[in-house]
Amino acid sequence: MTSLFDFTPADTSRYPGWPCAWSHTDRYDSSHRYTLWRVWDDNKPFMQVVGLNPSTANEDALDPTVTRVQKWGRAWGFGAFCMTNLFAFRSPHPDVMRAATDPIGQDNDHWLDAISQQAALVIAAWGNGGEFLGQAQSFVTSREGKGLPPLHCLGVTASGAPIHPLARGRYRVPDDIQPRLWMIQEPGRVARTKR
Q: Which residues make Cβ contacts (< 8 Å) with residue 169, sequence separation at least 6?
């Protein structure tokens, strides 16, 4: 298994108290974010969370999604998590992401795969927007035959998509949630979870 340190940026001097947080973005353009790490115990395994697209969180500031994910990661016994997304374009508004010239980002699929290969747990959490450009199906298909850990989720939407950590209404995710195996949707069938 690869160490967390294999994913660190070359220059960690700008991250006080490292290992604590870092991210990977396009070198000259911060409009895309590929990963966002939070580390509290580098002697424990890490989990990957795959959302829809990154919002405002970065290595210096959390957003509500990352705050919730970090609480769950600690409660579930992990030492870190890596937030990745089906689409790397940064916006708190998915409709803005969908209108972007390059919503996926040139390196996004690489980072999704690299992190998935090393994570002890992978949580699908993109909500109903993952079908855009076939990206959810592409991610699921890219994992086949690689011996990766099965995808888990926090629950599913009415259409069978893995719910987002900030889902509202009847799909609201309780604070004491435990990850569930995601039974991936097959054509004509609604996905379900298995406890």
A: none
User: pLDDT tens across 64-83, in order?
Assistant: 999 999 999 999 999 999 99
- The domain spans of the chain are 28-194
pTM over 0.90: no
Residues 6+ apart with CB under 8 A from 38: 20, 21, 66, 70, 73, 80, 81, 83
Spatial distance between the Cα atoms of 36 and 28, rounded to a whole number of angstroms: 17
CA distance 172 to 63: 17
Please identify which residue in the block is written with the tokens 């990850």: 179
Q: Measured at the alpha carbon of residue 7, what is the angle toward residues 110 and 140, in degrees to the nearest 5?
A: 35
Query: Which helix (H) or strand (E) element contains residue 60?
Result: none
